[in-house]
Design goal:
It contains 17 helices and 27 strands. The chain is of the alpha/beta class. The termini are far apart. The strands form six sheets. It has a seven-stranded mixed sheet with strand order 2-6-5-3-4-9-8, sandwiched between helices. The chain folds into three domains: about 180 residues, Alpha-D-Glucose-1,6-Bisphosphate, Chain A, domain 3, CATH 3.40.120.10; about 220 residues, Alpha-D-Glucose-1,6-Bisphosphate, subunit A, domain 3 (Alpha-D-Glucose-1,6-Bisphosphate, Chain A, domain 3), CATH 3.40.120.10; about 130 residues, Alpha-D-phosphohexomutase, C-terminal domain (TATA-Binding Protein). The protein binds alpha-D-glucose-1-phosphate-6-vanadate (VG1) and cobalt (II) ion. The site of alpha-D-glucose-1-phosphate-6-vanadate has 18 residues, from loops. The site of cobalt (II) ion (CO) has 8 residues, from loops. It catalyses: alpha-D-glucose 1-phosphate = alpha-D-glucose 6-phosphate.
Length: about 550
Amino acid sequence: MKNVTIKTQPYDDQRPGTSGLRKKVKVFQTPHYLENFVQAIFDTQSDLKGGTLVLGGDGRYYNRDAIQIILRIAAANGVSRVLVGCGGLLSTPAASCIIRKYKTDGGIILSASHNPGGPDEDFGIKFNTPNGGPAPEAVTEAIYRRTKEIAEYRILETPPIDLDTLGETRLGETRVEIIDSVKDYADLMMELFDFNRIRMLFESGVFTMRFDAMHAVTGPYATEILEVRLGAAPGTVINGTPSTDFGGGHPDPNLVHAHQLVEFTQGANAVNFAAASDGDGDRNMILGRNFFVTPSDSLAVMVANAHLIKGYSAGINGVARSMPTSQAADRVAEKLGLPCFETPTGWKFFGNLLDDRKITLCGEESFGTGSDHIREKDGLWAVLFWLNMLAVKQQSVEKIVTDHWKAFGRNYYTRYDYEAIDKADAEALMDSLREKLAQLPGQTLDGYSVEYADDFAYTDPVDGSRSERQGIRVGFAGGSRIVFRLSGTGTEGATLRVYLEAYESDPSKQMQATEAAMTDLVDIALKLAEIEQRTGRTKPSVIT
Ligand code: VG1
Ligand code: CO
């Protein structure tokens, strides 16, 4: 066992995107690719030397190999202790929980989240800071700069270690502890939610649920929490065994990819409640009987009902949502007199607001909701929040949401994704939109009058850091909105996202199908961005 220094060449494509560095597995397998990025983390995060690191991932293909490599680089870089989830598994929220609970110096999470897994699919890596949250832009930029000048990395020459037995081993001077992936996280959930009350709901015999782990990391967490600690019937968790290629599926909890779950909510034997989470367990989809809750509505309903939930009954400080997320939560915040923030896409922008106690709850339209309990979005947490709410209110999901609309208005919402389009075409489309922005306010498009049009920029109210070009917003009189932005998590070409929101305050018009309520806005968006002409696409790849 000896430390060696390996000469390497920089790669020029290691800039982290919305949530870490994501590439095809094959790219990560090219010589020194992963090693360079990991060494750049250690070169820029000096507290890790002599410190404690948390390490784990979503179990996708290459997870175990990457963990062995990272452990050996950590040992050669003088990390004194590494906490590794058993089997190399840690959901993103569990990693955040463990980073915080044991006051560590940060964590490395291996995941490409909702992207497919397997030898020809995606892999990802990101660094989380000691607050448990994704590294802010200043940190990811420093890591990126380092990757562009890196000339060598240090690694311990040693065979792979056993990742599947709890307990401690040594790698050179470094203590490696294989820890229970689930326990700390499950314990935290018991502090936040009324488990007795939820258990009574399951024991009542009239309440049924399915949770779809989508063959991804949440399976063991959901089984322990729902079936063991809360007494839900065995079989409540489906697709609960993590697999390296997520059963060949797309671990993205939406109506398209979680269709097996959707079927449980339909027909004569429909369950009362259903939910799913993504590859790394930070996203959630909430369904009632024949009823889909949009993620933006889910956040708004949570804000309105937080006082009913044990961990939040003392009151919440405020709420934040990412810019493309519907303004449903803003309406609740306004009525309750709570501060409300609009941040760029990506969880890293919520960190400062949470640390500074400006907000307690936050969310994104992309099936992400969370709170100040950790610094990542949290899929199972959202499911437990809903379960706790259902147990207290003793109403159906549909009743809770439709009553919410009556009180606050309904923000019809949909997102069109155009995946794997040509990068240059996508850039040109955005540039052309930017050029139109100045002329738009005051114009009327198909009967909708434009109130504002801008390229969203954000100044962090805590540290003053500025993030520009975060997406184009076109706002209409009456509260409807169209947003255009390019994805920062894709690994093939560019993905254009078009977010559409139509506000309806009149209860007699709140029960339309979303598609019908959105037709005008869709037309306006397609024309304004010249989507068909510029991308050659006549329809989106996915509608959520
Ligand atoms: C997407 C979502 C964003 C989310 C990010 C990471 O980013 O839009 O809201 O924070 O994925 O989620 P983008 O840049 O592709 O639009 V996850 O579950 O991948 O950690
Ligand atoms: Co995710």
